[in-house]
Amino acid sequence: MTLLSLNNMKTDIGQYAVLHGVTLDIPEGGVFVLLGRNGAGKTTTLRSIMGLWNPTPGSVTFRGADITGLHTADIARKGIAYVPENMGIFGGLTVEENLILATDKGRFDQPRLKRIYALFPALEQFWTKQAWSLSGGQKQMLAVARAIIEPRALILIDEPTKGLAPSIVAAMAEAFREISQSATILLVEQNFHFAKSIGRDMAVIDDGLVAHAGPMADFAADTELQERLLSLSA
Amino acid sequence: MSASLSKPSFGDIAVKSTVLLIAALLCFAPFLFQDVRALEVAARICVFIVLVASYDLLIGYTGIVSFAHTMFFGFGAYGAAILLRQMGPGWDAVILGGLAGVLVSLVVATAIGLLSLRVKAIFFAMITLAAASVALVLASQLSHFTGGEDGITYRAPDLFKPAFKLMVDEDGKVLRLFGVKMNGKLAAYYFVFVTCLLLFFVMLRLVGSPLGTVLKAIRENEARAEAIGYRVVAYRTFVFCLSAAIASLAGTVYAVWLKYTGPDTALSFAIMIDILLMVVIGGMGTMWGAVIGAVLMVIAQYYLRDLMGVAAEATAGIPLLPELLNPDRWLFWLGIIFILLVYFFPKGIVGTITQKGARG
Amino acid sequence: MENLSNILGRMGGVYLLPAGLALGAFVLIGAPASWATLTIAGLSMGMMVFLMASGLSLIFGLMDVLNFGHSAFISFGAFVAATVLSLLGGWVGADSVFLNSMALVFALLAAVSFGLAAGWFFESVIIRPVYHDHLRQILITMGALIVSEQIILALWGGTPITVLRPHFLEGAIILGNVSVEIYRLFAFGLGLVAFIGLYLVLNRSRIGLLVRAGVENREMVEALGFRIDRLFIGVFMVGSALAAVGGAMWAGYETLITPALGGEMMIVVFIVVIIGGLGSIKGTLLGAIMVGLTANYVGFLAPKLALASNMILMTIILLWRPNGLRPAVK
Question: Hey, what CATH class is A2-230 in?
Answer without folding.
Answer: alpha beta
